[in-house]
Design brief:
The complex is a heterodimer of chains A (308) and B (639). Chain A has helices at 6-9, 27-32, 39-50, 56-67, 75-79, 86-96, 112-123, 133-145, 161-166, 178-189, 233-249, 264-270, 281-294, 303-306, and strands at 127-131, 155-157, 172-175, 200-202, 218-222, 254-256, 275-278, 299-302. Chain A has 308 residues and is α/β, with parallel strands linked by helices. Chain A has three domains: 6-96, Orthogonal Bundle (Fumarate Reductase Iron-sulfur Protein, Chain B, domain 2), CATH 1.10.1060.10; 106-207, Rossmann fold (3-Layer(aba) Sandwich), CATH 3.40.50; 218-306, Rossmann fold, CATH 3.40.50. Chain B is α+β, with helices and mostly antiparallel strands. Helix content of chain B is 31%, strand content 20%. The chains are: A alpha/beta (308), B alpha+beta (639).
């Protein structure tokens, strides 16, 4: 490993005033509940490296396990009051330690839970989704894929400060690129754009779980449509994290993917719960077909419809 | 020697927690060396607690080997309360985040101490309830931390700070004893609000409140701070209890559309009650605004309008945080009428020492936050802050204010305790700490100042009582009846300072025609009886200041302010022990614009081993109400 000047690489980490605001929506911190696994901990690792209070020789392995847990959701960057990006600092730590991973930025959109909130979001016409040109094709494809589940969306391309002024009036603007999001947010705080900071959202902010009232005696069916053998490692990880998030508010009653299982019908007949709740519309259709065909006495509901 | 003890302790802890939950690597130690304050210190090991039942055996081991135990959850406090100054062990309780029970019939929730405040709110909202304490750090601080430091928030004027929402707790003492304390237990408030220096909170029983049916907000724009504060004063003195009464100052308004207008301060009033009542209230408040020279009054605010106003406050904080890496927030409180004076003084001090910062304040309860930013590497700036804070401390004390309203003392403010408390009181605090935590392992070196520099004067009227309390004969409570005069009746601040011998009937005769009511529905006897007989469960919640004698001398705690988080809570302890711990002379009470309902309690308190230990601190000769502890104080008797 080459000698590196950490105080220049991590100069922004020194800006952190360790307030802890970033901890609240970090999926990794919420899972591990330890300082190191939250954004504040990651930034402080960088800061201590810059101040030469930590060395990579001594603590390499432990730093490695910590920084690998970041889910790249960028919630921390959205929240940080000092304007630094903990996620970006974590990326730099990864680079220094030679971890090569593809960033699963756009795969977020395929995520099941994301779809639920997304769907609810787009039924309101006063919201606008803004995307950078690099992601445009992928996002458009993904959105078309989601048309199955009843999504309709307006997509805007290539947004920078000056063009935001010309945009039609919307209640909220959603961004999928954290850099552009930060640019706009800074411009608002500096008074260059006349918008409320809460009017602009980063895509992960609409993922925040809300409370769902489930019918009593019901069972959640977690889809495995997006979890086939070809699924990338990163997407699997994401799926895992958001599954944990879901389980937090559904009391652990779930069955893992019935779709292509040969014993599905038998299983459906034997479970005690009367209501089955699915996360995707496609699965909903599939289960409804099965129930009609084999005359199983169960009800199937879409989780999105139950969201209060 | 110490090293071998440390290794032995680790070996024993491993059996309880498992090896993977004990962190001793340099990385993890350094990651647990900071919180939201500028203070830093490294622990020797970090213990991840996964289960409330693990805390008692862990403390037992740490006590045996004499290692410090400092609790850490979200680590978001401003005064270094979770910094392990003396080294030792960090107990990470963040994983204790289960909601155990929510009871909407009797309006309480039982939770573990690591539950995040916002998470609790999210659970309660869909079922039509909320939890009143709402500190600014609501979204990321834990309920356990809120209670340990008696955090408040915008709503505390109406619903009280954390302490008023406490119904019970499970606490582990330094030697590993687990105590299950109900609301009527005298030690509940003392232990819970001790910032983790007397015990560790594992579970809490908290009050939950039904969501208000109707809510309305109105906004007034004023030309200067004085007019605004006069309007606030008037709103409170007419008996309104708004759920929020917030002021936005010039710095915050510079970020809104008021930027280039002559409006310098904005008063935001939020009312909660029935629809009919609110319409009337709004008319009156609009009149108050007009009478105090408000330039702009808005009542029909849309949801978006409101969001913009609340957001600007957040925006102001964001703009401030961007400028430097050091951030200090203080939390003084003074009586409401003196708030404008205090704020003007602090603004001048900030200018004098050339410091960057803003002052945010909750106008309703007299609590204000000077937020100061600085560069962590700049030693000169740090020194300037120290000098400025010293001046502010002295000034706030001269106004009769409190050092801390909702952040606690911890490390940052412990030296200033010498200014705000007299020598006897500090000695008593120290003795309480030494008795309940003989090896000084729980959050050591916090709250109490390390050195003393003050002599205490005893006022002439108290000399006789002081001599009696130091003597051997039974204390004569009857003599207190002569102390029945009203010392201070502050109509604007809604407080009453009165001698303990005053008759409730007499007070009611004087107060009720003026539409002021005592915080109790009991009608007979003296205040002293009411305070000591324990019949009114909530009365002690509304005693904001207390002067009493005990074996240790003349003790004064609290004052004329609604929120207080400085020092140990002796008021509830004195009330709960029914006179066995000392004799109260002077009460400062909160008054109310309407009669309130009291909760009655007939139970006598239970005498436990810990309480006997405390009794020996307060009254070793057993001269205060000797019958209560008769037979319990001999060395041989054990429970």
């Amino acid at each position: 490993m080459k000698k590196q000047n950490f105080d220049t690489i991590f100069c922004d980490a020194l800006k952190c005033n360790h307030c802890g605001l970033c901890l609240q929506n970090c999926p990794a911190y919420r899972t591990y509940k330890q300082e190191g696994y939250g954004p504040r901990g990651r930034v402080q690792i960088a800061a201590f490296l810059a101040k030469k209070k930590l060395t990579l020789k001594q603590d390499k392995n432990e730093i490695l396990t910590i920084i690998k847990t970041c889910q790249n959701c960028n919630n921390c960057t959205v929240l940080c009051p000092t304007g630094i990006s903990p996620q970006d600092i974590n990326e730099r730590l990864k680079n220094i330690l030679n971890i090569k991973e593809e960033e699963p930025k756009t795969s977020l959109i395929k995520n099941i839970l994301f779809k639920i909130y997304f769907r609810k979001f787009f039924t309101k016409k006063d919201n606008l989704f803004l995307t950078s040109s690099t992601n445009f094709k992928q996002i458009k494809q993904s959105l078309e894929m989601l048309k199955d589940d009843g999504f309709e969306s307006t997509l805007y391309k290539e947004i920078v400060t000056h063009s935001l002024r010309k945009l039609p009036n919307f209640k909220t603007y959603i961004f999928d690129d954290i850099e552009i999001y930060r640019l706009i947010k800074n411009a608002i705080i500096d008074g260059k754009i006349n918008l409320n900071p809460k009017q602009i959202l980063f895509i992960t902010q609409i993922l925040k779980p809300k409370t769902v009232k489930l019918p009593e005696d019901s069972l959640i069916i977690l889809s495995n449509i997006y979890l086939t053998q070809e699924t990338k490692e990163e997407e699997r990880k994401l799926f895992q994290i958001f599954k944990n998030k879901t389980l937090n508010f559904i009391n652990n009653r779930y069955y893992y993917g019935p779709n292509y299982h040969p014993k599905t019908v038998e299983y459906l007949k034997n479970i005690p719960q009367k209501t089955l709740i699915t996360l995707s519309a496609r699965e909903n259709k599939f289960l409804n077909k099965l129930i009609k065909k084999y005359k199983i006495d169960k009800k199937v509901e879409l989780l999105a419809n139950l969201l209060s | 020697m110490r090293e071998s003890k440390f290794k032995q302790a680790l070996r024993e802890l491993k059996k309880i927690l498992g090896g993977e939950n004990i962190l001793t690597s340099k990385l993890h130690l350094i990651l647990n060396s900071y919180d939201s304050s500028p203070i830093k210190a490294r622990p020797e090991a970090v213990l991840n607690i996964k289960n409330t039942s693990q805390i008692s055996p862990v403390l037992h081991i740490l006590n045996k080997y004499n290692f410090a135990a400092t609790v850490r959850m979200s680590a978001t406090n401003h005064d270094g309360a979770c910094i392990p100054i003396k080294g030792g062990f960090i107990l990470n309780l963040a994983a204790l985040d289960k909601t155990i029970e929510i009871n909407t019939k009797e309006n309480y929730a039982i939770i573990e101490s690591g539950v995040i405040n916002q998470d609790l709110q999210d659970i309660l909202k869909p079922i039509g309830f909320f939890f009143a304490p709402d500190p600014a750090s609501q979204t990321f601080s834990t309920v356990g931390g809120n209670f340990a430091l008696n955090a408040g928030g915008a709503k505390s004027l109406k619903y009280g700070a954390s302490a008023q929402n406490l119904l019970g707790a499970e606490i582990v003492l330094a030697d590993g004893t687990t105590l299950n304390l109900k609301k009527e237990h005298p030690m509940l408030h003392l232990l819970v609000k001790s910032e983790g220096t007397l015990g560790i909170i594992t579970k809490l029983k908290v009050k939950i409140i039904p969501l208000p049916t109707y809510k309305e907000t109105l906004i007034g724009g004023f030309l200067n701070l004085k007019d605004t504060m006069q309007a606030v004063q008037k709103i409170i003195s007419l008996g309104f209890l708004p759920s929020a009464l917030e002021v936005m100052d010039e710095n915050a308004l510079a970020l809104t559309r008021y930027k280039d207008t002559n409006i310098k301060t904005l008063l935001i009033t939020e009312l909660e009650s029935s629809k009919k009542q609110i319409a009337e209230d709004i008319k009156q408040i609009v009149n108050i605004f007009k009478n105090n020279k408000a330039k702009e009054i808005k009542t029909d605010l849309t949801v978006e309008d409101l969001q913009i106003f609340w957001n600007t406050r957040a925006k102001a904080a964001l703009a401030l945080a961007k400028q430097a890496n050091g951030f200090m927030s203080f939390d003084y409180a003074v009586e409401r009428p003196k708030l404008a004076e205090a704020i003007e003084f602090i603004q001048s001090i900030l200018k004098k020492y050339n410091l960057r910062g803003t002052i945010v304040f909750h106008a309703g309860d007299g609590n204000f936050h000077p937020n100061i930013i600085f560069n962590e590497n700049n030693a000169y700036e740090a020194n300037q802050i120290k000098l400025a804070i010293k001046e502010i401390d002295k000034f706030v004390f001269s106004l009769g204010g409190t050092l801390s309203a909702e952040h606690g003392i911890a490390v940052q403010k412990r030296a200033a305790m010498n200014i705000f408390f007299n020598q006897d009181t500090l000695n008593l605090f120290r003795k309480i700490k030494n008795t309940l935590d003989t090896n000084d392992i729980l959050n050591p070196q916090k709250i109490l100042p390390l050195c003393e520099n003050k002599k205490q004067d005893i006022p002439t009227w108290a000399e006789d009582f002081y001599k009696q309390a130091k003597g051997q004969k039974e204390f004569d409570f009857k003599k207190i009846k002569a102390l029945n005069k009203i010392i201070d009746f502050d109509k604007e601040n809604y407080t009453l300072t009165v001698g303990a011998g005053a008759l409730i009937e007499d007070l009611n005769k004087k107060l009720n025609p003026l539409k002021f009511y005592l915080p109790t529905s009991q009608k007979k006897g003296t205040l002293l009886d009411l305070f000591l007989n324990g019949k009114d469960l909530n009365f002690a919640d509304f005693v904001t200041g207390l002067t009493f004698v005990c074996g240790e001398g003349l003790i004064t705690v609290g004052g004329k302010f609604v929120k207080n988080a400085a020092g140990y809570d002796l008021i509830h302890l004195m009330a709960g022990t029914q006179g066995a711990f000392g004799a109260p002379f002077v009460f400062t009470l909160r008054l109310f614009p309407q009669q309130i309902k009291s909760q009655t309690n007939k139970n006598k308190f239970e005498i436990t081993e810990t309480l006997i230990k405390l009794k020996k601190v307060f009254d070793k000769n057993n001269i205060f109400k000797p019958k209560i502890f008769e037979g319990y104080l001999d060395e041989e008797t054990k429970l």
